[in-house]
Amino acid sequence: MKMSTKKLIIILAAAVIVCLAVWFVIARLAPGGVTAVVSVDGVEYRRIDLSKVKEPFEFTVETKYGSNTVLVEPGAISVSSADCPDKICVHMGRLTGAGVPIVCMPHRLVIEIEGEELDAWS
C-alpha cells in the first residue's frame, strides 16, 4: 500500500506543527532567569535574579570576618574588592553561569549561580 506524496507532506507538516507547539509551551512554562545566591557562613545573605538586572550596581557585604564589595551586572556577578589578604575572590572574575562559585575563605563568603544546570557536555 503506497502513500501518496501529498498525504506524506501533510503528515510531516502536522508533526512539525505539533513539535513546535510543544516546544513553545515548554519554553513559556520553564522557569526563566539565572539567580545569584550570596551566602555568608552558610547563611543566605542575598538572592539576585541576574536576568532582571538592567543597570550595574554594587553592594557591600560587611561581616565580623571582613568586607567584600559585590558588583552585579546584567547576567553576571563578581567581587570587585575585598579587604582579605589574598584577594582570590576578586581575581576569580565574573560569574555568569552555574559551575565554580566565587569563594572568599577568610570572609566565609560564597556566591553561587542557580537556575542553570550543567550537563555532561557543558
Describe the structure.
The protein has two domains: 1-30; 35-114, mini-chromosome maintenance (MCM) complex, domain 2 (Sandwich), CATH 2.60.320.10. It is of the alpha+beta class. The model is unreliable at 117-122 (pLDDT under 50). Strands 2-1-7-6 form a four-stranded antiparallel β-sheet, with no helix packed on it. A three-stranded antiparallel β-sheet has the order 3-4-5. The protein has helices at 5-29, 88-91, and strands spanning 35-40, 43-49, 57-62, 67-73, 76-82, 102-104, 109-114.
Return the structural class: alpha+beta
Unreliable stretches (pLDDT < 50, length at least 5) are 117-122
Query: Any idea of the CATH topology of the largest domain?
Result: mini-chromosome maintenance (MCM) complex, domain 2
How far is the first residue's CA from the last residue's CA?
47 Å
Count of alpha and pi helical runs: 2
- The CATH homologous superfamily of the largest domain corresponds to N-utilization substance G protein NusG, insert domain
Task: Count all strands and give the number.
Answer: 7
Number of domains: 2
> Which strands sit side by side, in order, in the main sheet?
2-1-7-6
Mean pLDDT: 85
Main sheet record: 4 strands, antiparallel
Helix content: 10-25%
* Rg computed from alpha carbons, rounded to a whole number of angstroms: 23 Å
Question: Shape from CA axes?
Answer: rod-shaped
